[in-house]
Structure formats: structure tokens, C-alpha cells
Amino acid sequence: MNEHKDIHATNLPPLGGAGGRLVILGAGESGVGAAYLAQQKGFDVFVSDMGVIADKYKSQLQQWGIRFEEQQHTESEILNATEVVKSPGIPEKAPLVKKLREQGTPVISEIEFAGRYTDAKMICITGSNGKTTTTSLTYHILQKAGLNVGLAGNIGKSFAYQVATEQYDYYVLEISSFMLDDMYEFKADIAVLLNITPDHLDRYDYKMENYVASKFRIAQNQTPADYFIYCADDPETIKGMESRSFNGQQLPFSIIKKEQPGAYLDQENNIIIQTNQQQETFIMSINELALQGKHNIHNSMASGIVSKVLELRNQTIRESMGDFKNIEHRLEQVGKISGINFINDSKATNVNSTWFALESMPKGVILILGGVDKGNDYSMLNDLVKQKVKAIVCLGKDNQRIHDAFTGMVSEIIDTKSAQEAVYVSYHLAKKGDTVLLSPACASFDLFKNYEERGDQFKKAVMDL
Fold first, then answer.
1. Which annotated residues bind ATP (predicted)?
2. pTM of the full predicted structure?
3. Does 355 lie in the same domain as 274?
4. Are 169 and 148 contacting, i.e. CB atoms less than 8 angstroms apart?
């Protein structure tokens, strides 16, 4: 079915308008936002999506008079672009992307494109795990401090759309490795690298060094006036730094050793943050943090360093770190039924995220795992599974690798094909005082649209028990 629509609206610039011809591949939140900004800047815009465009985005494109197509890529419409903005979900090996690269057409991310049209200060956060939590917490602190700040990237509304419609002084951006791959001139005023653990290796030729290189692009183009904040406890980060040079001022954080300037944990379990000698030192007990668990001390430290660099008041930072509500689908308490605790950690789409989740659990876990396996190495979970997990419930179409990894370690491994079935089976395996933890370590696309839908169906199934 060809849903290609030619719309000749009065507000469209002439072909090859002031900015040239911009083609956008992918009509999701970021693509449609980029189309709007491009139109405002006088580009001739065309949007193309290989899938079906969601009604919400389709009606926006129609309303703005932007030409688009769905369920196909018409090469004659795309290969003549001056520049292409690509959705982070489209891999480099897609035939159309290869053709564009071969003919020398610049292919960039929405962040790269929108960054040209704003003078706001950019606070950019990346990492294999914890980036959504840290981005949300940082935004919460800045907002509470009264700064004029936007939230975008992998989270919230499209960055490009906000650049077109708002006048923020600061942006807190959650940046994935896929976005970083298509960023060239863009610069983070404050760059945060939380950690690097194997993830998405299918997109990086199964080479860890390629993925590491992608993550370090967060610090590219920085000057001595900028800041690079990183975790001194993360082995891959430290190893990656040895062969690279950084122009930004380095501020490490650690729960193992004293880092000054930077952040560390003292012997009384207080977070200590100092970014320069002139400032008052920030001190806060980890018991007062809204986010509990070892990995969240790192996340809170990173947000705290950003806040100190921006010279926010200690009182504001302390209050914000104490009253922050964590994001949905990340170690989210769903409820207790018959004394069994249900936790939704659907956002755990890699093994390391699941490790962090298990690490913060008591014993007696029924663990729901599975989905689209991205070349996972489950062995890092072995010790925690032996210590804490009673049974594993698989939620996916193909669970063979989970069976191979954990058979003999737990009393039962059971396959299920829906969130409802997984919850029902888990409930009957658990007893009072146990925890049913959905922390899949895999992407969700085999049975669900995305991790949000997986988490929502899990929560509904718990409520229906």
C-alpha cells in the first residue's frame, strides 16, 4: 500500500529552499521534530519511513504541510538530498544508508542538526546503564534551581521540536551510542560518561572497541572551558581514557577512592563533591538519597557534579536528590500481593542493567528474563543468580540461550509467551516475602512494541492477579 502523500501547502518553501533539500529517515519523535525545525529554517523537507507512521505523527506532518511517505523508501526522493537526518534506530548497514554514504551525502542525527540552531548550554549524558535515571535527576535538580531548562534526546519531546518552539538556556540530553555515531560538529558543554558495558554489540560488528569508541564521542569537540565527568570505578572507561586525550576539565566520581576535584564516598557513607577550591563542598549521606542501590550512588554523584559545575546551591541539590521520583519501568515498585513484592524493571534491556537490579534485591527472587538477545553474555549474572534467584521465568519467543546459561543454577526455568502468563507463573512459584522481578536483559521487540509496553503489560497483569 502506497501512502505517499504530496502536499503542496502555501507555507512550503520552494524546492531546494533556503537550506537545501533535507530528507528525514524515520518518522518517530525525533524525525518529525527535525522535520518541523527544518521547515522553519527554510529547507525543502521530505520524510520517509519504512514502517507505518503513527497517527499522531502523521497528523502533525499533514498539519504542517510536510511531504512524507510510509512503508517504503523512494530512492529518487532520497538520494538527491543535500543532507539526511537519520533515526538512531536505522543501522549503518541498511542498503539506503550505504548508498547515501557512498555518494558522499552527509547523514547526521537529529541532535547534530538541531544543535546548530540553539546557543543553549548542552549537558549530555551517556553510558550503557543509568543514563535515563541520571538525565531525569539532573533535569529535576536544574528545574528546581529555577534554571530555564529543556529535557530531550532519548527521553521526552524531540530536541529539534523544542529548539524550534522554545527558548531554553540549558538542555539536559540523554544520548545513546546510536545518536553519537551520527554526531560530528556538536559539542557538549558538560559531558557525562557513566559506564561502558557490552551492549548493542550487534550494531558494532560484535567488537567492544567499536562500541567504546562510540561512547567516547560524547567528549568530542570539547574545549578547556568544558567539562568531562566520568566514573573512575568503571574499568572500560578508564581503559578507554588511556589511549585518548581530552580537552575538557576532567571530573571523576568514585565510591572506592577519594577523587578531588570530583566526587567520592567518605568513611561515613557521605557523598562529598567539590569541583573547585573556591566552592563550598557538597556533603550528603547516601541514606538521604531518593535513589537507593550502589549504582544509584554513581548516578547521584554524576548529577551532583553537574549541579556544582553550574554553581547551584547545595541546599537545592540536597533537596532535589532527596525528593526525586524515579522514572517508570526502572526498578519501579508495582505492588505487594499475598506478601510477594512485584518490581517492574522492563527498561533493563541489557545484562548489565539486570546485574544492577539483582544486586539491589534481597534473596528469594523469581526473575523474569528474555526477549531479543543482542549477543548477551549471561555469565556476569551467575554469582547473583546462585545467591538470590529461586526460579527463572522466560518471556520471549526464543529462550534457548537463557536455558543454556542457567540450567542447573536454579530449581526451575519456565517458558512463557505473554506478560500475563509470565506474571501468573511467577506468582505461583513465589511465596510470601519473595520478589518477582521483571528485568529482562533483552530488547522487547519479539513480543512487544517497546520496553514501555512490556512494562505496562506486566503491571496490568500484576493488578489483575
1. 127-133
2. 0.77
3. no
4. yes
131 belongs to an annotated ligand binding site? yes
pLDDT digits (tens, 9 = 90+) for 342-363: 999 999 998 988 998 998 888 9
Instruction: Kindly report the CATH number assigned to the domain that includes residue 395.
Output: 3.90.190.20
| 146 annotated ligand binder | no
- Asked if residue 214 belongs to a known ligand binding site, the reply is no
Q: Is the peptide bond before 198 cis (omega within 30 degrees of 0)?
A: no
257 labelled ligand-binding: no
Residues 153 and 111: beta-carbon distance below 8 Å: yes
Question: Is 129 one of the annotated binding-site residues?
Answer: yes
Query: Are 364 and 446 part of one and the same domain?
Result: yes
Q: Tell me if 185 is assigned to some domain.
A: yes
Supply the mean pLDDT for the chain.
92
Is there a binding annotation on residue 135?
no
Other CB atoms within a 10 A radius of the CB of residue 45 amount to 29
197 carries a ligand binding annotation: no
Q: What is the pLDDT of residues 432-456, one digit of tens each?
A: 999 999 999 999 999 999 999 999 9
Domain that holds residue 385: 332-463
